[in-house]
Task: structure prediction
Amino acid sequence: MDGTVLVADDDRTIRTVLTQALTRAGCKVHATASLITLMRWVEEGKGDLVISDVVMPDGNGLETLPKITQARPGLPVIIISAQNTIVTAIRATEKEAYDYLPKPFDLPDLMKRAARALEIKRRAPTPEPRKEEPTASQDLPLIGRSANMQALYRLVAKVMNTDLPVLVTGESGTGKSLIARAIHDFSDRRNRPFVVVRPRDLNAAEGPAHLLDRAEGGALLFDEVGDLDDDAQGRVVRMLDGLGSDGPRILATSQADLAARIKAGTFRKDLFYRLGGITVAVPPLRERVDDIALLADHFLARGEQGGLAPRRFSKDAAERIRAHPWPGNVRELENTVRRLMVTSPAEEISRGDVAGVLGPATATEPDNGGNGDKLSTSVARHLKRYFDLHGGDLPPPGLYPRILREVETPLIEIALEATGGNQAKCADLLGINRNTLRKKISDLDIRVTRRRKLM
Result:
């Protein structure tokens, strides 16, 4: 690589790691913990690439993006953030960031993205004018740092300003309608109507025409399109065939397996092809267990803002919540958290409180939806879903070490818990050297709690 990189992050360790890595790659680096300093460098003409965190002591990296674009059109900016929500990913795209990576990021992946950004800078493209500030709700519970949710956020950011129809699939309670709404609310059509189509809206022959009049070039969402009967499906096909260039954006959601229904003869193949220009698959909660704690804390905060007494989860309670299979997905989790906030007698919600709401733990819960499958089968299913979420693109480079880390961390944590924190016993259980175990505990930032046995 060749060029000057401006790094802005309030974490000294991240500044040091990026400075060393970029310098070894042949770049000059200026690093700071201040957005004011970053803007001064930009205005002075320094830098061929900016890498910036979002939350900084003196401001917000996303809010600084338009200022950077105004001062230096064509200067690429890579946003890195621990705020792992769909709002962050989409706002980074809306504000014309070159790229967005959630923390913790994969360093080799970031370096490759930086190299591509510097190459683009050398070609000096002229960026389009900055779009208006989106007005969508900041309170969308579409939160997740898991790999499959981050892939979903990237796909949503890519498709939100295309005219292709989008089919959002997933189980009940995963947030399909929220994804569809976010696609509209952050798109260029956000100031136009968003009309949700119910089966009853298509009962009459004039139903489609009335819907088009209501939409006024905004968006039509066919919620649970798999529930439409044959007559309604035919009316939708004819309506879509008659759409002009100024017609509304078409969105649809379905928890049903539409391919299976096509085989069964209960869903029209021509309608499926018209709705599925791009398919966005929302993973169930059991396939993103690392996000459960984030969501639970989010719902605690939301409940407190709504007037409920402040609550927090004990460590055992959080573990019990993480182990639950959540067949109702995010909606079930939200309802459970609100119920716990009301029924728990103390500020700290205990494991017993959780068991009182969810019932006793079952033998199948720790598998998180494996349904008795072999481990290899369960892992293969998760990996297939991860690849599918990239919409035909390959996942970011560095997949092998990322997957190993995701498996290795819970394996060591569970083994340590089973051995009472005794590292010698844990190393023997795992079949690795004790020094190797110590290094992995340090590298993976695993907290070790040694339990004392009661005599």
Notes: The longest helix spans residues 399-418. Residues 340 and 356 are 9 Å apart (CA to CA).
